Amino acid sequence: MPEKKDFNLALEDILKKVYIFSELSDEELVKVKRLVNTKNYKKGTVIFFEGDPGEAVFFVKSGKVKVYKGDDEGREFILHIFDEGDVFAEAVLLGGGTYPATAEAVEDSVVGFIKNEDLESFIKKSPDLAIKIIRIMAARLRDSQEKIKDLALKDTYDRTACMLHKISLDYGQRTSRGIEIDLPVTRQELAALVGTSRETVTRILSQMKKNGIIDIDRQKIIVLDERKLMRCRKD
Q: Taking CA atoms, which of 14, 38, 62, 151 is between 20 and 30 Å from 83?
């Protein structure tokens, strides 16, 4: 019994970190908690595939999850990497349909989910929650538009620099050496975020290291000069 109590307390704490639930009253949080299911996923495990029936909205309780589109040749284009407290798959909440992308655990993760019909019923009683979900969907749309613009207007070097800067802001830890990026992504996954090949990203990272912009310590990337990273231009 004590273990169940600890789990409930942990779930309530994480729900308060989830943007769409962060301003709910304690009474409302208790109601939401009853709707939540959780599941453990090992690193590399697919949570849902693109094209699967969209039956639930998810949030990251712990760990990290990537959402990506794939093509017929097996290549990935990563749309987003979600961290603790982030909501994903909200696009299927209104109107149902299928999941527009695949979700996969980047590291061992615990993921919470609420079935669409349960969340829709709750939203009808909480208009503020509906507004927050709309804001999240609008932010996702802006992110997608930025990615499309970057692919059209920026070369691969600039896209890599911008992505490294964004990742450093989202996941970086400032140390005496610089900003250490605490994100367990492979070169292939970084390439999928940028929209290029692993070989190209590896070559660009080596060039940035040579220019003193970053350092690479095993799998960890350290931003040594944030200003140069933002000014990066191939020429």
A: 151
Q: Single out the residue of 172, 186, 166 nearest to residue 229, CA to CA.
A: 166
CA angle 201, 67, 160 (to 5 degrees): 20
Tokens 């989910």, located at residue = 113
Q: List Cβ neighbours of 85 (8 Å cut-off, separation of 6 or more).
A: 14, 17, 18, 19, 59, 60
86 φ, ψ to 5°? -80, 145
The residue among 153, 179, 196 that closes a domain is: 153
Inter-residue contact 150 to 185 (CB < 8 Å): no
- Chain center to CA of 184: 12
Predicted structure pTM score = 0.70
DSSP letter, residue 235: -
CB atoms within 10 A of CB 69: 14
Q: Does one domain contain both 213 and 109?
A: no
> Tell me: the pLDDT tens digits for 40-73?
999 999 999 999 999 999 999 999 999 998 877 7
Residue type at position 120 = E
Residue-wise pLDDT for 164-202, tens only, equals 888 888 888 898 889 998 777 788 888 888 888 889 999
Same domain, 140 and 163: no
Q: Do residue 69 and residue 147 come from a single domain?
A: yes
